[in-house]
Amino acid sequence: MSSYRNPTPTVDAILQKGSKVLMVRRKKDPFKDTLALPGGFVNEGETVEDAMKREVMEETALEVEPIDILGVYSDPHRDPRMHTMTVVFVAIIIGGKEKAQDDAASLEWVELAGIEKAAFDHAQILADYRQWKGNAGSTYWSTKRRSTQVDRNY
Amino acid sequence: MSSYRNPTPTVDAILQKGSKVLMVRRKKDPFKDTLALPGGFVNEGETVEDAMKREVMEETALEVEPIDILGVYSDPHRDPRMHTMTVVFVAIIIGGKEKAQDDAASLEWVELAGIEKAAFDHAQILADYRQWKGNAGSTYWSTKRRSTQVDRNY
What we know:
The first copy, chain A, is an alpha+beta fold. Chain A has helices at 48-60, 122-133; strands at residues 8-17, 20-26, 35-36, 39-41, 62-73, 84-96, 104-111, 140-141. In chain A, a hairpin with an 8-residue loop joins β2 (20-26) and β3 (35-36). Chains A, B: It holds the Pfam family NUDIX.
């Protein structure tokens, strides 16, 4: 095993319906009572895509499938507890009946255009997602320069 | 800190010049003497993009910048030592003079079209990269169904 210390991997999911995205009102700290994307820690022996599906199921009772990766966010200060990194999937709902459970106090469909505050770096993630939708799927990371347009003709 | 066990995060870089990509001949096990993408473990306190830049510098003496994320590969069996996950960046060379060092026995520019064997899941990653280049930057993960075209008009 590695004898070094590494960031702890997490996953988050963006689920869109019309002009809204699904967020969970957090039951626990950090960011208790704040809106966050559904997500959580990746377990050893589990792929990141399976972790994303499991976490969304645990919190929302929805069955989802990944369709793309928006980015990987790993700023050491994004989570006050420890250095985490998150793989953010764009996903679609394929089954289940929406119900807040586990770490989610409630579920809310929030206007994507209006989200300015959210737990962790999720407001930045959703700002990037708005870019992404108009930008042929360019990917994101914490320190990416947001003003630069990626030239895909390399 | 988390009391759970998680996959250990790593990073890899795809650097293309003409029809070739840069690979390192591994000096150590696992996959000793086999070609691999430049990359390595992410340290606590370091972003994945900085880890990618540092690892490429350590192995090749090249200064690089990320331009996109190809995907995140986290099959529990991709590394015989432990469960690792890797964030694969597409990057460009912005400085430095190429020189094999650290874990790299030698550096080789390899025809992208001809790579069938490589360390870890790097042959799959490079097959995905060939797709990616023709596919407007769709992202990849270990269990993604490779035959399905992603419909971006959702």
